[in-house]
Amino acid sequence: MSVTADSRAVAGSNAVRLEELRRFLEHEAELLDERRFDEWCELYTEDATYWVPANPEQENWRDHVSLFYDDKHTMRVRVQRLNHPRIHCQSPPSSCVRVISGVRLDEVTAEGGWLVRSKFVMVEDRPGNPQRVFGGRYSHTIVQEDDQLRIRLKRVDLTNCDQSFPMLTQPF
Amino acid sequence: MAGYTSDELRAMVQPDRVHRAIYTDPAIFEIEMEKIFRRVWLYVGHESLVPNPGDYYCTHLARQPVVLSRHKDDGICVLFNRCGHRGAKVLNRERGNAKVFTCMYHGWSFRPNGALAGVPMRQDFPEEPLADQQFGMAQLPRVESYRGFVFASFNPDVEPLLDYLAEARRGIDELVDRSPEGEVALSAGCHRYHYRGNWKLQLENLADMYHPAACHASTVGPDGRQFKRRAGDEGGDAAFFAPNGEAIVAQTGVRGLNNRHSSEASLFDKEQSGGHWDDYRAILVERYGEERTADILKNRRHSMTFFPSSDILLAQTSVRVIRPVAVDFTEVEVWPVRLVGAPNSISDDLVRFVNMTHAAASFIQSDDMEAFERCQEGLRTQGTDWVLVARGLGAEIDEGDGVFFGPRSSEVGQRAQHEAWRDLMGA
User: Fold this and answer.
1) A77 CA to chain B: closest CA distance, Å?
2) Is ipTM beyond 0.90?
3) Could you tell me if residue B132 is inside a domain?
């Protein structure tokens, strides 16, 4: 195979891979939209981190507060609470839709995973409350585990991450 | 706008109840800004926010933009964030460093102590007003600092800060003493949240050990214990319910201090230990000795709340600031502290756990905000004008020095806040 044909083949397989990753991100958004929080949690590896920094240039979770900084245990506690019958700030519950766009495969990581970047908008409605719109960028580090794609790190950079928020209950 | 006499305002606070209008009437909110927020000491920020000359940190006091700054000779200053010329807000970023603070409108500049530094085309102004300090960036009339915590007052005749804090100063001592160097740094930014409710709903919540069992039920696991919310292999979580369902958490006591401040006792039943907590403890023992260290790390208080708008959250090693915006809108900041001289891993944990407890997205704060908004909505109803604050009334224990202890989630702390409100508003 010539060099050109080889790179075309790589580009082709990347396109297939990108399509698979894009569908995976949309699946994650769908689980959250449908409030299937247990299944959502299952998409993450045991050593996963779900991170929403509170500063646009935040480099780590240690030097600055975060809106969310959840390891898998904390994610489970969060989901347990979201499913709890006495979570008052979800009575009645929120209804959300998340729209993802601009999905691109940024790099293949050293462990053979993928860093996928995208943009999103989330609309949240809850009876008695003003409609809320959130927007920003997702960065997913995704790995293959036992034939399943799983998320090792999800970083959500909200456009308004350093501003004041009303209560937040839904993962972005 | 309804007017109120001092006597009418005094009558809104009764020994066991307060009038709902203090939460809902915009006219009363305006009087509060004048008679409370412009009369007493208000926490501005911590000295660690402005470590170097020229550093500034912008915030608000009583709805007015102010600047905490550091001047090379004068040290810590608190300025009104207003150009001495035509009134534009001068500093528009939350934090930064500058030799002079320059107004974007006509280019006037001011030194970090507020003194006028430069006026473009100065020769066209008469010199007299330019020499007048009020046409610089004016300073708040009174500024005092206690162990790094900077307070200011709009009232030139306000009593000395330590007289105002009185017994509540212990909250600052107990926080700062957890650092082996006796120094904390508010260097990790802050959580900011807001709710559609009156500022006193947050203030009263900081003296409320009655609510966690109902309000925060969703944070408790099947074993009756809350999620782990602080460092250490042991002592990181608190028992909320006994196996028989009894709310252990509501047995926590509360104190009213000096007829204005309040303090909740600790709800933790075990001392923190294990993991890197033991390394931290060893450093404290080396510095302070075993007996003093045990006292510093004791599960003594959950919080110490300074009337009207700031709080040391000892349980979460952080500082909370309440910022009234309107009668039915309040912003709050929660700043975790880093303990200077403690292992980084300990301070990292302090930052991490506050994400879980007090971020807008946290497990605890979100249900409190729901409670505040429902109170604001419910208090609009006209069926009953009075709000009951009677829990533990008559069962207070006088501990001396103006401190009253109320066992079993007494509302004694809220009553102390209301007494301060009554005395200031009724003056």
Assistant:
1) 7
2) yes
3) yes
